[in-house]
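As promised in the previous annual report, we have extended the structural survey to additional targets. Below is the entry for Pyridinium-3,5-bisthiocarboxylic acid mononucleotide nickel insertion protein.
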Amino acid sequence: MKILYLDLGMGAAGDMLTAALLDSMNEKDKAEAIKEISLLGIPDVTFDVEKSVKCGITGTHVSVKVHGIDEAEGLHEHHGHEHEHDHNSDHGHSHEHDNHEHHHHHSNLQKINDIVDSLKVSEQIKTDVKSIYNILAEAEGLVHGKPVTEIHFHEVGTMDAVADITAACILIRKIGADKIIASPIHVGSGQVKCAHGILPVPAPATAYILREIPMYSTEIKGELCTPTGAAILKYFVNEYGAMPAMTSDSIGYGMGYKDFERANCVRAMVGTTQNEAMRFNEETDKDNALHSDGKTAEDRAIHSDEKTAEDRTIHSDEKTARNSSDNNDTDLIIELRCNIDDMTGEEMGFALERLMEAGARDVFTTPITMKKNRPGILLTVICSTTDKEKMVREIFKNTTTIGIRETICNRYILERTEEALNTPLGQVREKRVTGYGVERSKLEYDDLASIARNTGKSLQEVRNLIK
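The corresponding structure token record, generated without further manual editing, is:
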């Protein structure tokens, strides 16, 4: 299993995460990634990538410039939402406003989405960026007591934040980790001054985003984790804790602006792990407490009829199921289920789309018979443990259900790899899976379908010609 581990001992900001991910790449991939993020199509925005040294460690520093001005010289990204800012953050984003003035125009979430839709990136990246902005807007709305639709972003803060978030999304997708794990987040301590007054660290929006995520503070004063950094982590990270037993293939250091006695950086480690019993945090262990017979009272039933062939989910009630067979892996997932009998097919279809866009591993429905012999739908959502609360909110928001059931499951996984094949008809990706004595492969449907459309051949003809 390919793992991306993020060491957040000095917090996280969008630019530091981007820099760490870039620094972890080989020179060829890094050059291609820099070219891609430089051609996003965000008006008047440029990226500067340079080497930086902190406490004797060499890494990469990324700065975003709007109209040629470094983001550190304008608004701090944290205060790109609703208010101006005049403090110095611990990542060195200094704000000396005596020498220049900012006349701020405002952008609401719809305008942000319009900007994202105009970017020269894939639909997957656009979905990622919009979802992260939704996390930011929800946090700001809660803090300011306003609906998400009324949250506004300062235009200067908008441009550099869109650039930071989009770049991070592109790089994470390029690395293609099967699982992203992060250390507990160092948020800093003390207070920060902004136009609204003195705020505690972590700032209210950051604290809201990081709820249920392990974080801590030390004697270091200032804001180490920004809302943008927190939102990126909230969206992508599957698990928080110590680094698992893994073989590291590459390491990257993303440097902040300021200097401390500690190296001001995010460290990204990319590697592989096998035979790893995936860790359970204390909350999960408590919620999944076992009776003497090794089963929870709620989960004694085996839901064999609700599994998807694609996920091959195995519902185990015993902790010993955490340990996988040799050369194979497991991970912990959550299955959320609810019964619905009063939604149209169109409404249900829309709900499934929204749940997948929000980050569900899989979503499917099963026909059932409900009370009073009414035909109904069993909605099943499979997600990571860290996405559980987000999925619960999305289910309640997009369906008519008034109750959701939860099951904690061990998922047994075949190791997946992908290779690009050069064929007479063009390049086609081949996906391979191995493990548990199984080895098989299949050609990527999207590539076959694209060739079929371009050549006028049927899908089967294309598949036979390539084979």
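Residues 365 and 395 are 13 Å apart (CA to CA). The first strand starts at residue 2 and ends at 7. These points will be discussed at the next consortium meeting with the crystallography subgroup.
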